[in-house]
Design brief:
InterPro entries: 4Fe-4S_dom, 4Fe4S_Fe-S-bd, 4Fe4S_Fe_S_CS, Elect_transpt_cplx_RnfB/RsxB, RnfB_subfamily. One of its GO terms (molecular function) is 4 iron, 4 sulfur cluster binding. It holds the Pfam family Fer4_21. There is one protein chain. With 302 residues, this protein is of the alpha+beta class. The chain folds into 4 domains: 5-65, no CATH class; 77-141, Electron transport complex subunit B, putative Fe-S cluster (3-methyladenine DNA Glycosylase II, Chain A, domain 3, Orthogonal Bundle), CATH 1.10.15.40; 145-217, Alpha-Beta Plaits (2-Layer Sandwich), CATH 3.30.70.20; 219-300. The chain is 38% helix and 15% strand. The protein is built from 7 helices and 9 strands, in the order αβββββαααβαβββαα. α2 crosses α3 and α6 packs antiparallel against α7. It is elongated.
Amino acid sequence: MRPLRDFLRPPLARTDLPEDNRLYQGQRLSKQPQSGKSAARAVPLPGTAFFIWRGPGIICPMLSSPSSLPPVSSPSLADRIEALLPQTQCTKCGYPACRPYAEAIADGSAGYNQCPPGGQQGVARLAQLLQQPVIPLNPANGAERPRPLAVIDEAACIGCTLCIQACPVDAIAGAAKQMHTVINDLCTGCDLCLAPCPVDCITMVDVSGTDTGWDAWTQQQADAARARHDFRAVRLAREKRENDERLAAKAAEKLKAVAAESAATPEQQAEQQRKKAIIQAAIERARLKKEQQAEEAAKDSP
């Protein structure tokens, strides 16, 4: 009987295997015709180590060295600050979202104590990252409180969709002239749906008892809220781009229709020129606006 160690040795070290079932490292087998017959030939694959078990025909590519991996950039200070924010997107910090606030903290134009949803614990987390002393939450931005949840009085809701447009994380479901409702698990308690409601049918209800700040909000909830906010921004940008393209195409068709109109009298010709000038001016404004948006996007991109 053969000793167990013979079976535990790696295949590359074993010489008792049949030629066709050995493991080749750093080579790839290919079929090349030789004298009218197909024969196996080992060819090197630059930059890659291939481990081939010829029996079942399995090929498993592996990078030859860690140096061939793409470089991974370390997160910026703004990235690390944003990761510590609760991502409610409430704008109480004085900025339109958590990301702009993080960038303002990073460049020194904003204090790290302007986030009421994060509370005093949030200030302490930012202070530790920035290696600064822990300071009180700025009362000008609001007070720390239990986590609120928006509740819509569905009987009073008129379906205006204004709260849906205001919600930064798409936590409100509904349609025009239809009843709206809040998806509880998605609501961040930002309060942004209160002001636009024309019938005051939305109230904020505390749902965390006496817990406030990060004691009432988890990192998993923050990460999910951030993902929904980012997805919403992409969706709104896409919808705006599609709408602009649709309007531009409509204007171009209208310009063609006006140019094709017959104008026999001087009055008709003047009216035709007036219409063409209006449409051309609208097309030019749309073009300039599109270029401006592209320039702003290029500036914002890293």
